Structures
1.
Amino acid sequence: MIAKEVNPTCSPLGPDNKLILAPGILAGTISPCSQRVSVGGKSPLTGGIKEANAGGTSGQKMGRLGLAAIVLEGKPEPGRLYTLHVSREGAFLEGAGDLKGAGNYKVAETLRAKYGRHVGVISIGPAGEMLMSAATVAMTDQEGIPARHAARGGLGAVMGSKGIKAIVIDDTGMPKIVPAKDQEVFKKITKAFAAVILERPRVKHRLHKFGTAGLISFTNEVNSLPTRNFSRGQFEKVEHISGEAVVALIDARGGQRGHSCYQGCIVRCSNKFMDAEGKHLTSSFEYETIAMLGSNLDIYDLDAIARMDRLCDDYGVDTIEIGCAMGVAMEANILPFGDAARAIETLHQVGKGTVLGRVIGNGAVTTGRVFGVERVPAIKGQGLPAWDPRTALATGVTFVTSPQGADHTAGRLQGVMEFDRLKPGTIAQLSKEMQIRACFYDTVGLCHFADGTPESAEWLVKLLSAFYGERLSVDYGMETGQKVLETELNFNLAAGITEADDRLPEFMLKEPLPPTNGTFSVAREEIQEAFAGLKENKKS
């Protein structure tokens, strides 16, 4: 819809852009880990097409309501702010002046008190209202906590430009399960696929126990953990921010791990992190957040990092982009590395919209331009996630080539596979295959943590065949993913984003990554050859 109906050269924050929220094809069914919501539009951060997705309860509820998508278009009169209530009775706009400037926590609490504790709430914080390019779209979990975010690309600013403070998804009166055409076969495949997911080592031994925070020690070991604005790949005080340290505090303070963001999630990678007094501080305390607000800023106080995560969730900004932006500000000596108190105070400035707050809230590239910093870790305008491409080579190719900008959810190799010795000439092709699979999985609504091998595509196609009552093939799934990827590339080309933009930050090409001195060793010719087919289709 974005590609067909949005002018690629339009202003991302103008009336001609659209914001589309779409559940996956299998939303509302009993399919495991398939209830995510994709949010799409033209990104104010990258200037290209953008898809960001999140868990929580809204995707499941949208599926139960039979919604293919919610589309926001046009632009209201200045100063007007609304809530959109969607139920079986229809969609209704209501004034939301009382929520102006409110954080996501207050928005969720207010709307759940008004419409019922069962509703899903999709909202923006003050950053979205102020149209900051790092603004997110928040979604509530089973407990009504707005901790799941479609975070990348600044789509919260697009929602703010439409004057929508929140969307309430109310599935009252709808069946709890969306049936498949062949429900009995669908049940059998669901049960078998769920068993496969639960037996995968990273789910069984890491995600259930540590959540994604369990990746901290691993990425540090393989020299890929962003440290002090991507100047090193290992953090000297990693034991203070490791998954083991996170779990120890959760258990000691009466928090919760192995938490599900929606009913039926079997990966259960989420958690509830409590403060020293045993009060809830933040939920889904994730790897990317801990790395980008922790080691990347030389901060090793987990309570301070968790406080920053809470503020990012409440003000509605991407922890990855903000971590990159503050790292750049520290590079410029605007903030001192390692000063957690100053970092927290800076986040409050983002929420208030001060001059410094607006600079940081508009992302790493803006921060670098304002303060004259050369070492800006960003591609196509978007800050790098917590995987240094000088060692995570296949993921680095994805960062370079993806129409989404530097985005690990666009296609990343899982676990130790990424850091095995990959054969020369195969790395770019792996990235291409991962990106195609990721596009297919996002179409279905599958959480990428439920993926493990290419066989996941086979399971999904079996589910889709039973759902539609048609015999579909794996080729169908991969063709769907490739069509999505080509569509995104075509939009970006029309928007002025070309192959010349497919490059790492210059400093990463010049600086080996200490302490192992890794370099991005994938030849540009290999990348061009692997993606030649997509590029040809893109030009046509």
2.
Amino acid sequence: MSIDQPYERGVKLWPALAAGAAVLAAGAAVWITLEADFLAYPGWLAAQKADFILGPVLIGLYWLRQRPHSRFGPILICFGFVGALYVLQSSGNKWLFSSGLLWENVVGLAAYVLILTFPTGRLDGLASKLILVAAVVLAVVPSVVIELLLPQVNAGGSISGCSGLCPENALAITSRPALADHLFTIFRYAVIAIALVTAGLLVWRFMRGTPPQRRALAIGAPVALLFLLLQATFHLLALVAPDALELRRVIAWTFAGARAALWYGFLAALVAAQLFAARALQRLVRQSLQRPSHRELEEMLREPLGDPQLRLAFWSPKTRSWLDVDGEHSLEQPTDPRLTLTVIEHSGRPAVAILHDAQLNDDPELLQTAGGIALLSAENADLDAAWNDALRELRDSRARIVRVGDAERRKVERDLHDGLQQRLLAIGIDLALTADVDGEDSELRTRLHEIGHSVDEALHELQSLARGIYPPVLGAYGIAAAFEDIQLPAGRGLTIRANGLGRYAPELESAVYYSCLEAIQNAMKYGGDAVRITVTLREHDGELEFDVSDNGPGFYPSGSNPGTGLQNIRDRLGAVDGRVSIITAPGQGTTVSGAVPVPADKTTPAVARD
């Protein structure tokens, strides 16, 4: 079964020819029947004979269009053209009329073939075959012999009788009325028995069938049961109450209507199956939006398909085999004839397989629905996996960028500390020594001291810059110790609350530290000279959390554009899968809160400072 290469539904030549032939045959049947002046009900019989052709052929064509691999559609089409020869019984020519009488037995036998092969198109089981053999031996053969024994034979159909004498029987070879009457009694009893046995078989199939079979039989079988019971009643009344003419007439007309309704019951069963599949598809699509796992999908498909043993498998290009919903065991072609493996292809390649009850092959709408949903779920799973891989790669890439940036910060800080800072310190010492040695020139000595003082100031600025690039305490002792080294300008207070913190991955520590530092700088920028800032750090539920609160003026979050500082915080925390939120209002201060996940195996105790 291929999802992306469905059955071609365009108009083909042979279905159009079959439909055209059926219309012509029906028109001929109506014309011939209406012209027959010996029939009791020529108008009704003309409509019946036309329906015998058009109904099965057109419904069979529709069945074949919807279920191209089913045999039942061709059987319906064949039945319609078999019924076309039934019109011979309306001919005034004795040879054609007699042939039509014989052909009525073929039409009756074909009706049983329809009933017994519905809905699979197959004559399943020994009972079905025995019923047809019994019908041939006990009903068709006696009927043929009867026609050979009577020079004058009335049409035997329920409403096919003649108003007077029927045309002469051209096939009679002798005249044995008594023997013919005895055979006719045998024929009626045989028809009654065959009809009742067939009805019992339909009931047994319904009781023992799978849910899809019962759904099909629940629509098509009642009409067939009505036809069979009315047929049995029609012949039983002829045997036990031959004088009950009015009752027999009512049963005859009802029987004729039930026989014509057979194929319409089959059509209703097909439409019901399509509607059920559509409802199942709607429900399954809605459930599939919840992104079920492969195992959940398997359980989800079992109910509408009515197969509690249904199993799904997904094609693995790596192992080139079918793997079950757990991705472990390979699924092989079943050896049990009661099971079938239906393969769903996509873009010409196998994608999903459904191991199911073989009887579900006769309900292709549901199989196509299940296959489409399974394929959709598999593709969604692949897309989710690809999306998660891409997201994980992006997250890892951002984390690597943060780590590289922090490593570069540490390198710059070390270079400044070990290189430029030491050289400035050495220059300052040299200047001081030179000023002390050269004591005679007071002006030069003063100048050297001034230069030395400038060098000290540059050294302090350099040290402050180096700590801003990457504080050595952060790498050596962790976040809490790094915050203790922060000194705010006079008038501004900073309170640090950090208890029970350990050491974390460098990228986590730097992300939290610089995010808090960014929030502190924003608070000083907008909070005024007397702003008070509190930094709270804690580890909770596997996350390293922080809050930076100030008593500044606050603002309307919805009415302001986030500055570069807040965006920097979001970027830093996002690189390590963290999050940030801001709570503020005019006159209520501002609190910047954030958290980063801490892997359980990535926490170590903090090292105390000397």
